[in-house]
Design a protein that fits this description.
The chain is of the alpha/beta class. It has two domains: 88 residues, Arc Repressor Mutant, subunit A; 167 residues, Glucose-6-phosphate isomerase like protein, domain 1 (Rossmann fold, 3-Layer(aba) Sandwich), CATH 3.40.50. It is globular and about 65 Å long. The N and C termini lie far apart (63 Å).
Length: 294
C-alpha cells in the first residue's frame, strides 16, 4: 500500500492533476495535508531547495504537520520524502552534484569543483556577521565547559574544532556516540556552552542535543546552513554557512570547507583575545606531541 502512495504522490509532485484526484480519493488527507499537496502541485522546486522550516512556512503549515504528512505517506520524514522526489525528478548523473554532467571531462570536473568551493567560501564570508563571531568567542572564553555536537560529516568538523580549540588552551569535549552526546547535553549548566554543527539544520538527534542542553541552562550556538531551519530557530546564536546547490545538502563537501573556515576564524580570534595564554597552550601541546614526529 505504501508503495502505491509513493507512486501516486510523486505523480502529484510532477503536477499531474488527475493523479492528485486519485490520491485524494484513496488516501484520507487532513485539511492541512491537502494544503501541502496543493502547494506542491505548483511549487515542486521548493521541496528540492528549501529546508523543512522554509517549505512549511510557504505551504502555510507547521514543521510538525509537514513531518506527519511525510510519515502518513510512508516516508521517515521530510528529508526522506525529499530524497525520493529528487531521485525521480533529477537525472541520475545530476544527483551527485547538479553542477556536474556525465559528459564533463576531468579538467571540467576539477574546475567546477574548485569554483564551487571558492564560491561557497566567498558567500559565507559575505553572510558572516563579525559581531556574532566576537560574541561566540566571548561565550567560549567564559565557559566552564564546551561540548561540541554533530553527527556524520558534522562530527568530523566537530573533531577538527576540538583540535583547534584545545591547541589554544580551550577545553572542549566531543563525543562520537549519540547516547553520550545526549547524556553530556543533560549535564551542562548555565556556565557552559553547547556548540551545535548541522548544515541541514534538521538532524533530529543533533536538535535533541540542543534542546536538552538549552533546557539544562547551557548557552547554545549553532553552525548551520543559510535559511530558516529547526536548529537555527532553537539556538541562542547562529552562524550561517553557504553551500552550493545540492539536493542532498548533508553530502556537500564545500559546506564542510566553509564550516572549517568559520571555526578557523573563531579559533584565531580566540587565540588573539589573550595571546600569551594561547601561546603557552600551543607550546605545551607541541611539546607534548613532539616525540610522535621525526
Amino acid at each position: 500500500m505504501a508503495y502505491s502512495f509513493f507512486m501516486m504522490f510523486e505523480a502529484v509532485i510532477m503536477s499531474i492533476n488527475s493523479s492528485y484526484e486519485l490520491l485524494a480519493s484513496q488516501v484520507k488527507l487532513t485539511q492541512r495535508e491537502k494544503k501541502i499537496v496543493e502547494f506542491l502541485k505548483d511549487n515542486e522546486d521548493a521541496l528540492l531547495n528549501d529546508t523543512i522550516t522554509e517549505f512549511s512556512e510557504k505551504a502555510g503549515v507547521s514543521d510538525a504537520t509537514m513531518v506527519r504528512f511525510c510519515k502518513h505517506l510512508g516516508y521517515k520524514g521530510y528529508q526522506d520524502f525529499k530524497m525520493h522526489v529528487a531521485r525521480d525528478m533529477l537525472p541520475k548523473e545530476r544527483q551527485y552534484n547538479p553542477a556536474l554532467g556525465k559528459d564533463d571531462d576531468s579538467s571540467s570536473i576539477c574546475s567546477k569543483i574548485f569554483n564551487n568551493e571558492l564560491s561557497v567560501l566567498s558567500r559565507t564570508l559575505l553572510e558572516t556577521d563579525i559581531n556574532v563571531l566576537e560574541q561566540i568567542v566571548d561565550h567560549l572564553y567564559a565557559a566552564e565547559k564546551i561540548v561540541i555536537f554533530g553527527t556524520g560529516g558534522s562530527l568530523n568538523v566537530a573533531k577538527d574544532a576540538l583540535h583547534k580549540f584545545m591547541k589554544i588552551g580551550l577545553m572542549p569535549y566531543v563525543y562520537e556516540d549519540i547516547d553520550l552526546q545526549l547524556m553530556a547535553a543533560s549535564l551542562l549548566g548555565e556556565k557552559d556552552v553547547a556548540l551545535i554543527i548541522s548544515h541541514s539544520g534538521g538532524n533530529l538527534r543533533t536538535l535533541r542535543c540542543l534542546e536538552i542542553a538549552k533546557a539544562a541552562g547551557a548557552y547554545t550556538i549553532a553552525l548551520t546552513g543559510l535559511g530558516k531551519n529547526p536548529i537555527s530557530k532553537a539556538a541562542d546564536l547562529t552562524v550561517h554557512i553557504a553551500s552550493e546547490k545540492m539536493i542532498f545538502q548533508s553530502e556537500s563537501v564545500s559546506t564542510r570547507i566553509a564550516q572549517l573556515a568559520i571555526l578557523d576564524t573563531i579559533a584565531a580570534m580566540a587565540a588573539f583575545r589573550d595571546y600569551e595564554r594561547s601561546n603557552e597552550a600551543m607550546e605545551a601541546t607541541r611539546q607534548a606531541t613532539s616525540h610522535t614526529k621525526f
